[in-house]
Amino acid sequence: MQRVSKAEWVENKKAEQRVLETKLNGFLKAAIETKEGMKDLTAHYRISGLYNYSFLNSTLILMQGGPKAIAQSYNGWLKLERKVNVGEKSHINVFAPIFKKEKLADGTEDEKLVGFKMVPVFDVKQTAGKALQYDHNSTEELDIPYTKIVDAITKLTGAKVVETFTGSARGWSDGKNLTVSEMSNDTDKAKTLIHETAHHLCHTSDQASKIKVSQATKEVEAESVGYLVMAYLGLDFDLSKAYVQNWKAGIGDARTSLIIRTADKVIKALKKGMTEEEAFIVGLSSK
Question: What is the pTM of this model?
């Protein structure tokens, strides 16, 4: 590999920055021309104390196909008690300010912004270490491993559980996959997974049978199942009550017997995958 001089290296970096700025301008112009473009542009998770980039850098990360949740520099991850995995290479750049110290008339020093430079950052998936804390996570903790809930749901439904970025949604069901937000903690993931499992068990069959059920009623039924199952797991999920009230137009048509039957199926599936000790802890033991 041919070595380049420092001056050539600097000029190459400046050229890369000019190209990136040009692409960014084009990306922004295209994004603001459509409703969907604006939605994609602004649908970023805000993670407590972590995702503090400017809107410009947030957009820049999105444009480069980077994480829609969080990226940090190598040293930034160290401050968060995480390390970039060995062999990882950055494929995302952000603009970092360049400050220069200058002496003031009174003899003191001040920092003056003189420009910006490109800085490589790493996706959270390229790191390992201390767990991150997200703004929207529940404070309660599960008494059983979330992985056991995933296994039980997979066996019950035959659907694949997928964790990915879900924008402003917590998850969804499409009849084949049960998708949950990768940005949630295990309690939120479990709650969302059970909610989407209810949609899968109740409403996929409705669609196949051409039974017409309003969206409001579907949400009430799914969230009611979620609330009952989480209650059996020892978690009083208050958010469910508020969520159901948001869909109160569907309360009157909600099929109570279907809610009870579905919750029973999920609870039995969860119990089947637990050890006797785990079942006893969450109150599902027959003893």
Answer: 0.60
